[in-house]
């Protein structure tokens, strides 16, 4: 987590960095800071706890001029989110400043060593060891900043994306990465931009270099960009062209990114299957994994690793792969999998699902599986992300940038890719007959319009939200592939409205959660038509018998649940394998409206970050 931005060029650095930090706030918003070197060689470092807007207000009263600078928005790991712990951190002599995203695992031993050499630490952060270490090496070894960074990083254990600004060379910034992402933008007239992702860069240039692990980049007004490995080997920068559009990262008239992203789903689902599905000709194909289709078709089992919402998508994937392709699937929390000494071998296929493609645990789980010889595949949204680069192959979700911290369109795009994958493997294996295959792909093509139809009912969602906005707890129930939808609904509500919510398999409710039910408890039930419909109706009756309030998601035309539910939302009928793509939408909308009615910060919920690059 944490977002970093740096600029060197002919323009004023402060406004460029500030704007960039606002774009990266999804990565953390506990504190923000910017250091700028002005024409008189003064290093002005402004730091504020809280959001970037607070830093903006504070810095407006001070000199922030200068054409080179570095900035940071923090998600606190070590130390409280106060002004002192905010980045940039400055060397004891005030000559250098540094920003960091990641965690220095051996910071304790480095700190002790540096303290014994007379360094005084001001903050509680792990990051501060880096600036003192670089400073120490620079002075003792009489080397330049870039070389000092290189030597320092050889004794650092952990994850980092850093940028260092030094007064002794105002024409240069030195950056490095390992595990945390870093992109270099190559601007006009010798300008360079460095950032955790491309969003702060896109309006200035579409030429970027995604840095690899253990690389150091030196951007210099006179010498341009040079890239070295931390073993000191010079490399040729691989320049890529970004296809990201500026409109995609703006709110486009919506009050919040989350609402915009919920409403983008008809388009994002369509973009996801565009070119991968042809109903008239009757085929599905995922170009990115075509070389691995035979292996997938022969697989004895598939392991899916993910975190958060992506883990819920993996659970939907399990139903799809098992039902359609008849391949056993194990769904694992990446953070558990990596520390469990899992049994994996060359026959295994591990699929990582990640919106950002940067989640530290998912990345580590994949590396572990790769080291044991498994084939590793990725389903990512962010193009060029770390996961998409370390996997043998993969399929992008093409949902476009997702900025709201609570994931919405990325989830439905992940489920769409998983559906396409399951369908193509099922066909390859020959265990999906023509009639069923055609029915599913025909229905899949209709999903965007059906999502749009649900989105038209926003008033109904608002009405229901108004009734339950003050609830203290909520229960979400579903069976079969609606169970992950229930989990996702509960996660959305707790993430952004801070109402405690639990997702449960509907039948499991009687083994505990039923004790919580009283007339105050809203119970959201996914009761769409499908094999467990009658069973879910019985579960609803059990809730009603205890005076719980039922908010049911039902299939259009249903009369049975409609008659007993306190509230209902109708969604269009579809193939049961595709139902999660529709049933999720009302739950996203209700979470959104409840959070807005409670006055919560929908796009930046407290304590959360979108891209979790620490374990
Ligand atoms: C964070 C985000 C979630 C996301 C999860 C996994 O917790 O707030 O929205 O689902 O990380 O992220 P990934 O990028 O790997 O999908």
UniProtKB/TrEMBL annotation:
Catalytic reactions of this protein: D-fructose 6-phosphate + L-glutamine = D-glucosamine 6-phosphate + L-glutamate
Domain of life where this protein originates: Bacteria
Residue span(s) of domain Glutamine amidotransferase type-2: 2-222
Gene3D superfamilies cross-referenced by the UniProt entry: Glucose-6-phosphate isomerase like protein, domain 1, Glutamine Phosphoribosylpyrophosphate, subunit 1, domain 1
Xref: Pfam families: GATase_6, SIS
Active site per database record: 2, 610
Enzyme Commission number, as recorded: 2.6.1.16
Main location: cytoplasm
GO molecular function: carbohydrate derivative binding; glutamine-fructose-6-phosphate transaminase (isomerizing) activity
Class of enzymatic activity (EC top level): transferase
Biological processes, Gene Ontology terms: amino sugar biosynthetic process; carbohydrate metabolic process; fructose 6-phosphate metabolic process; protein N-linked glycosylation; UDP-N-acetylglucosamine metabolic process
A GO CC term assigned to this protein in UniProt: cytosol
Keyword terms, alphabetized: Aminotransferase, Cytoplasm, Glutamine amidotransferase, Repeat, Transferase
Protein localization: Cytoplasm
Annotated ranges, domain SIS: 292-431, 464-605
Function noted in UniProt: Catalyzes the first step in hexosamine metabolism, converting fructose-6P into glucosamine-6P using glutamine as a nitrogen source.
PANTHER family reported in the protein's UniProt record: GLUCOSAMINE--FRUCTOSE-6-PHOSPHATE AMINOTRANSFERASE, ISOMERIZING, GLUTAMINE--FRUCTOSE-6-PHOSPHATE TRANSAMINASE (ISOMERIZING)
Subunit structure: Homodimer.
UniProt protein name: Glutamine--fructose-6-phosphate aminotransferase [isomerizing]
Encoding gene per record: glmS
């Amino acid at each position: 987590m944490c977002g970093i931005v740096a600029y060197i060029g002919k323009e004023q650095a402060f406004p460029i960095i500030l704007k960039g930090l606002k774009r990266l706030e999804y990565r953390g918003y506990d504190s923000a800071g910017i250091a700028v070197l002005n024409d008189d060689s003064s290093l002005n470092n402004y730091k504020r706890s809280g959001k970037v807007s607070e830093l903006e207000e504070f810095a407006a009263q001070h000199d922030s001029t200068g054409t080179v600078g570095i900035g940071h928005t923090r998600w606190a790991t070590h130390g409280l989110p106060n002004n002192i712990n905010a980045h940039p951190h400055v060397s004891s002599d005030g000559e250098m400043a540094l920003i960091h995203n990641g965690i220095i695992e051996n910071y304790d031993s480095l700190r002790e060593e540096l303290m014994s050499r007379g360094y005084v630490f001001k903050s509680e952060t792990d990051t501060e060891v880096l600036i003192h270490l670089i400073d120490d090496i620079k002075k003792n070894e009489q080397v330049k900043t870039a070389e000092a960074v290189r030597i320092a990083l050889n004794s650092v254990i952990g994850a980092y994306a850093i940028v260092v600004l030094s007064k002794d060379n105002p024409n240069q910034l030195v950056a490095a990465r390992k595990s945390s992402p870093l992109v270099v933008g190559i601007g006009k007239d010798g300008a360079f931009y460095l950032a955790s992702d491309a969003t702060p860069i896109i309006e200035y240039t579409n030429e970027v270099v995604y840095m690899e692990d253990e690389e150091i980049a030196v951007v210099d007004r006179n010498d341009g960009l040079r890239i070295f490995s931390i073993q000191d080997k010079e490399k040729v920068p691989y320049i890529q062209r970004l296809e990201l559009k500026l409109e995609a990262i703006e709110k486009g008239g919506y009050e919040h990114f989350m609402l915009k992203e919920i409403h983008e789903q008809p388009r994002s689902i369509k973009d996801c299957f565009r070119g991968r599905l042809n109903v008239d000709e009757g085929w599905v194909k995922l170009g990115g994994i075509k070389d691995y289709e035979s292996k997938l078709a022969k697989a004895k089992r598939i392991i899916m690793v993910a975190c958060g919402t992506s883990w819920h998508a993996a659970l939907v994937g399990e139903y799809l792969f098992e039902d359609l392709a008849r391949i056993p699937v194990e769904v694992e929390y990446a953070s558990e999998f990596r520390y469990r000494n899992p049994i994996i071998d060359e026959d295994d296929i591990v699929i990582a699902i990640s919106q950002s493609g940067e989640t530290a645990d998912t990345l580590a789980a994949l590396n572990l599986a790769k080291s044991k010889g498994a084939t590793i595949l990725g389903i990512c949204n962010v193009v060029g992300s770390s996961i998409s680069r370390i996997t043998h192959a993969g399929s992008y979700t093409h949902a476009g940038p997702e900025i709201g911290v609570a994931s919405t369109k990325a989830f439905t795009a992940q489920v769409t890719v998983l559906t396409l994958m399951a369908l193509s493997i099922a066909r390859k294996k020959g265990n999906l007959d023509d009639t069923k295959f055609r029915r599913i792909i025909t229905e899949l093509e209709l999903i965007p319009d059906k999502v749009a139809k649900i989105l038209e009912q926003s008033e109904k969602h608002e009405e229901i939200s108004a009734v339950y906005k003050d609830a203290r707890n909520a229960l979400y129930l579903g069976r079969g592939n609606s169970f992950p939808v229930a989990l996702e609904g509960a996660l959305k509500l707790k993430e952004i409205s801070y109402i405690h919510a639990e997702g449960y398999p509907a039948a499991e409710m009687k083994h505990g959660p039923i004790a919580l039910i009283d007339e105050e408890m809203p119970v959201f039930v996914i009761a769409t038509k499908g094999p467990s419909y009658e069973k879910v109706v019985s579960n609803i009756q059990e809730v009603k018998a205890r005076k719980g309030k039922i908010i049911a998601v039902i299939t259009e035309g249903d009369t049975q649940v409609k008659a007993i539910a306190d509230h209902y939302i109708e969604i269009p009928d579809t193939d049961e394998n595709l139902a999660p793509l529709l049933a999720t939408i009302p739950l996203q909308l209700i979470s959104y409206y409840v959070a807005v009615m409670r006055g919560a910060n929908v796009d930046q919920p407290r304590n959360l970050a979108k891209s979790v690059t620490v374990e």
